[in-house]
Design a protein that fits this description.
The complex is a heterodimer of chains A (about 240) and B (about 100). Chain A has about 240 residues and is mostly helical. In chain A, about 75% of the residues lie in helices and about 0% in strands. Chain B has a two-stranded antiparallel sheet with strand order 1-2. Classes of the chains: A mainly alpha (about 240), B mainly alpha (about 100).
Chain lengths: ~240, ~100
């Protein structure tokens, strides 16, 4: 952040933001198609992309509702909310970069996701950080919503979700979101523990309950780990 | 609760968390503990979703075409395939196994 501003850094931030945003926008297509194929209307799908605008939370919401129905609504809200906690932390980190201005901060808040944060904080001077954030954020918001709409229209034509393997694609989507976060031993053991706990609970409790149990255990684990080893873990940004 | 209500509540929850990060003074929440909670919870929830979306069915746990599909997705991820390729690979495996009647 202290490094000197150069025109080259500035251009680099812009092109990096563009590349990341365009690549990630393509996932919007799979989200849109999947949501509609799982029974959400095109409008409901679009509200998720326009208003929620956070890939992991959106996939979690449609996944839990698809397997548990409206009865699992509480679990779906809780899971997408808890997956949104990291966006709140990104916001804290980005706050000084975005600067003053009520409306600017309000817009920035909605656009604070994994990708815009990762590109912004990867830059070395303030102007490039801002350029990186806004380029990624705006292009991604437009691209993600456009591809969601296209996917939703295509998904509408799909009859049987299972015949097209869409249920397997939903599972693969979560694996794809998880993968880049498994860079060290701690997240790997957390992922293993959470997977095993889910597996053990599924036969005995209604859909949506295992994920809530996992969330409670995860918070307890984080508190415990912080007590025994209170170093700051490596950065949580990155992935998608 | 209607689906629409759940959808709007969930969206508002995510929006509120993002906005809170800009509204709350940094010193109140920043620190190793919060970033650890966020990191651990994110990984745990995503892992739980992988397992439930792969194995859960109305009857409890079911081993069907989703299992080999997710294994293929893992292999594709290991070889750093792009996200869309991973999804398509999983979809093709599951759809193919079902089309040829090899797995449910």
């Amino acid at each position: 952040m202290a490094e000197e501003f150069t025109a080259q850094h500035f251009r680099q931030a812009r092109s990096q933001g563009l590349q990341v945003a365009l690549a990630v926008s393509l996932y919007g297509f799979s989200f849109g198609a999947l949501a509609v194929a799982l029974g959400f209307s095109v409008w409901q799908t679009m509200v998720l992309s326009l208003l929620m605008f956070s890939g992991a939370s959106q996939f979690a919401f449609i996944g839990i509702i698809a397997s548990g129905g409206v009865a699992a609504a509480g679990a779906a809200i809780a899971a997408s909310g808890m997956l949104g906690v990291r966006n709140g932390l990104y916001a804290l980190r980005l706050s000084p970069i975005i600067g003053e201005g009520f409306f600017k901060r309000l817009v920035a808040a909605q656009l604070t996701v994994d990708e815009s944060t990762a590109v912004a904080i990867a830059q070395t001077d303030l102007r490039s950080q801002r350029m990186g954030f806004w380029t990624t954020a705006i292009v991604l918001y437009l691209g993600w919503n456009l591809t969601t709409l296209l996917g939703a229209i295509v998904g509408d034509q799909i009859g049987d979700v299972r015949a097209w393997g869409l249920d397997a694609m939903a599972a693969a989507a979560f694996l794809g979101l998880l993968w880049p976060r498994l860079s060290s031993l701690e997240p790997r053991s957390v992922a293993l523990g959470a997977g095993v706990l889910t597996l053990v609970l599924i036969p005995f409790v209604p859909a949506g309950v295992p994920i809530l149990a996992v969330a409670v255990v995860a918070i307890a684990t984080a508190l415990y780990r912080h007590r025994v080893d209170p170093h700051k873990p490596e950065r949580t940004e990155g992935g998608s | 609760m209607s689906l629409w209500l759940a959808l709007v509540l969930a969206s508002l929850a995510v929006w509120a968390l993002k906005t809170a990060g800009y509204a709350i003074p940094r010193r109140f929440v920043e620190g190793a503990l919060m970033s650890r909670v966020a990191a651990v919870v994110t990984v745990a929830l995503l892992s739980s979703l992988v397992v439930s979306q792969t194995l859960q069915s109305a009857e409890g746990i079911t081993l069907d075409a989703r299992v080999p599909a997710v294994v293929v997705a893992g292999v594709l991820l290991y070889y750093k395939a792009p996200f869309l390729v991973v999804l398509l690979g999983a979809g093709i495996v599951a759809a193919g196994l079902r089309f040829f009647g090899l797995m449910a």
